[in-house]
Amino acid sequence: MSHALNILDHAIRGDPSGLSFLEQTASIYVLDAATNPGRPTTYGWWNFLNDALNDVERYESEAAGRQQLYGAENNSLDGHVRLLATITRRVARRPPSSDRRLVGTCLANASMSHMNLMGNPDLAQSLLANNAELRERNMGRIASIVFDFSFHRRNTNNMHFPRSAFADPVAMEQLCGAVAANAVSTGPAALRHLVSDWIVPGIDSLAPLAVVAIMSHIAIEAMGKGCPAGTTNAIEALVPSVLKCAIGPILIDSLRESDERGDDAMVETSDDTSSMAGGGSIVQRTATLALRALDSWCKVDSIGSVKLRSIFSSSNINILEAIADALYSNAEIMIDAVSDLIETLLDHDANNANVSLGISIAGSVMNNCLPSGMANQLLLAQQMTGDNEKSRVSILTELVSAVGLQRFRFAERQSNGDTAVCRCLARTAAKILLESRDLIQNGTIKASGLFDLLFKAASHPSVYVCGIAVEALAVIAPSNSELSTRLLPNLQGKAIIPFHLIEDVGGSLDDYSNFRERVLVDALVACYTGCSAFYLESCGSAIEEFCQATPSPHLPYQLEAALFCMIAVSERVKKEPGKEALCIQLEKMVSALSKNSFSTTSHPLVMAKMCLFINKYATSISSCETKTVFETASELVFASFNRGLEEYNKKGQSSPVDGISPLSEASNAFKQLLCSSPTQFSTPAARSALENAWKMPYACQQMAIEDREMLCSGLCSVIISLPSEQWNASLDALAQPILSCLNVVTKEADQLFDIAGGTGPQENLVALMNRLSNEIRLLAAVVRCFIEAGASQSYYGENKEGVIACHRNALVTLLHKSWPCLKHIGEKYCSYEVIATSIGRLLKDTLSLYGSEEELPLLLEITGLAKTSLRVVAKAKDPSSLVPLLSFMQKFMYIHGSKIEPSPRNNAINETIQVTAKNLMLISYEAVRSCKSSQDSNVAQNVASPMFDTLSSCAKKCPIFLLGLSRDSQPVGEVISSSVETAPVTMKSNEMDIVLSSITFLKELVSSLASLSLEALGEDRKDSIVSVIENIKRVLQTDILITAITSTCAGISPREVLDPLSGLMRAIVSISQWSDIESSVSGGINCGQFQLGDEAKSVALQAFQKCTESEHVPANFRKLISDMWEMHQTDDVGNIAGGEAVLDFIQRYKSS
Question: Please, is 506 exposed, middle or buried when counting C-beta atoms within 10 Å of its C-beta (0-12, 13-18, 19+)?
């Protein structure tokens, strides 16, 4: 192979050197002064393209001359030409002005080493002209290739007409795209020249496929962010001639030829059937591209069906009839294109209808208030919009009828297994239904055929076809009881998990599960809204029927589906005021489930769904008139819990087909039942049963911690329902198994640890650490759930304070019992991540117990355990263990920060808390520093986010405390200064949580600085704090502001941080003078990545300046930043300065 083909060959094989060469050649120019001394030339993509085209033609000519089996040999060049065409299209998007700049940059760089050559200004101009001429010549050459009929033969893979790589459909479409991209990027004049002076006049002598491909890509390129100014006006002027003289006639001819030759007979045997746009014959591809071109031009000029019909009214083409005819194609590529086109047309019609409605409203409101001239204009506008609305209704009527007739063909294609065509027909029908639903509902349009098609689609075995139809019908169902009643049985059938998917390993079950949880649930809710009584009766009857039916392999899945249908509407049912009908059906359902004798309900899937059903309706079950219903439901859950635990002990944690664990769902249901009616479990027998369930895991040790937490939450609800004098003993009984287990396991761990000097059998020790972690986590759940249960109660009467004190004392007593063991665990094992995580969670949950000065000892115990744990973790230098403790610090500073802030009102209690907070913060700071210095940078970054969260709480609640925080012998403000100086680096992190937390910290800090008062401080302290503030402001106004501006205005930052960064810049600007930030703003905007041009830079600079000079930052500041970011989100090689988007930006913000 030659040089150019060899490089392409290396690139398509993934060779980095080949890929790098192509990328650099497409992006820059280099000076070649060695090949012809004294006559330097530039080398860039256009040079490489010229060489590559020559090499491909030479290779094909030589192969044909040797009379080899050319088709097989030439196939190796298909990939080469595809890659060449793809990159050429990308480079063609670069406007000639950008090419000139790149050549100028090349010459400027070369002038340092070739001053004698580059000192001649005529030579520079000559090189610029040569490159422009080469580009034009190459594009003319590509145009001659794409319009050459020899590359568009129906069957070119034979000895007499060997197929060229240029005839490959993918390569051909990319080459057409390159011609279109070059015309658009060169400017409106070049675009008009290509279309009006070349293509339209010579339409009969040009290859139709190339014409519609180029037209399609012209419209696509014109919608790009970087299209030159004036492109939109040029497109608007070209629309009539392009549609009537080019796209329309080619579409009609290709559809006619398709009918004459027979659609099914048109798929040819050549190898091009598997390429562009899904394959198909040359005629199918031509028709498809014509439809795509029509779709693109309608998008770029906002053309709906009404406007489209008007454009073609002066021709002999009935364009809407042609579109309807295309629906009869059996080619997926064509019918998919029709669906896209119809969606586009109807979307624009809907927008125009909204405008018409606005004009109508304006006319009715202002008709008597306007001068006669304006009134006449408004009347004329109303008449025009009225005519357009009539045309829209007429077109929708035609489309509803035309698509409704496709219902017979839909059944035919479904029987043939043609899912793709069925999907496209369903998609089109769904779109037409949604756009015409008001007209259908008021009787203007009769749509029985359309509904028949959609119901056929809703019964289709493919979840994709079914999902399209169901989503559309669900929009109509809430307001149409007849439709809801008709749709519900279909949905109930779809809710049954197909038997062939149960053991599926290919991903189809996941697809079905997604369909069921996302599409089917919404549709069921819609049906319930439309026919609630029928819905409940139908589901109740189904559950009764399946519970009484003879067991079979399919029966559990049918019962599970009926329960699923009830679960799907549970949230909707809860919002309705009357529950009489619901309670009647719930009594029937629960009774039927209990009489099943566990034959069907023992299936894991049914057990899980039954428990979830009881969970969702627990509150309603507790309010049923028949009191035994609640008891029956509880027995069902308890039986499922025992059965699930038994299975857990035998097989471990297992999940049925939909990923739900029966044991977990039973635990959740227990919690909901206990919370919804705790008094029903306060009898000795019920409490004994609950105690057995609670202690059961300690006997078998085979229950997930999440399930135990759920059970704990419910038990706390039962305890809180008891008289307050029983709380202490009941909570102690609840926690006793936990504390006993902690003591026993701790002793076992100590023995292992001490025997081996801390390096003993790690497997056994790790298992014990996990057990300890789970028990501490469960203790935290007891504390948290009892606090939440108490908060949900309303205490009344004279003894209110006494009841609250009982609640708090019960928890404090429990914690006092647990502190010795917890402290020991923290001192010895907190270097283990699982232990640190559980202790951190417990500490966070206990923080809210401190409510008054009398409880200071409790707070000191909490912070003492935190201090002990932090010291151990700091010594271990393990970031993963530090994270949960920093999370505790964040909450501690947020809750108690106001007591820490220096104030004349501070008392001895506050000073004690202040000293404690300072110690904790400095230990945390030291721990973070030790992690950063000793660990890999990526690992150490794990602590950055929680540390910034902690600093954010400090900045919000106690900024003066934070500003003065420093270690002994270190300057005042060491912690805050170090953190602010680190922020510009963390703002560029690849970890999103680090970026967001650092930005949040900076925003909180700036907000506090803006309203900070130092009056409570002495003069020396005040001076030192002022110095710290000045240093912080300097960093904010320089490094941080530059980073924020570069990231947003040049489009570098991810979208998720765009709004937070805009808020940070707004905050910094609000506390700054223009002289403070002028150089930073200029430096950020003048970075190399900013592509909007000098005038846009000037607008941005003026906007920032106005923000500093105004009392308030303008409301459109965020929008200005967002618009600049958005315009940079393009893959085009060329700059976007001078494009329509940039000019529009300049006009909008120049005067605002």
Answer: exposed
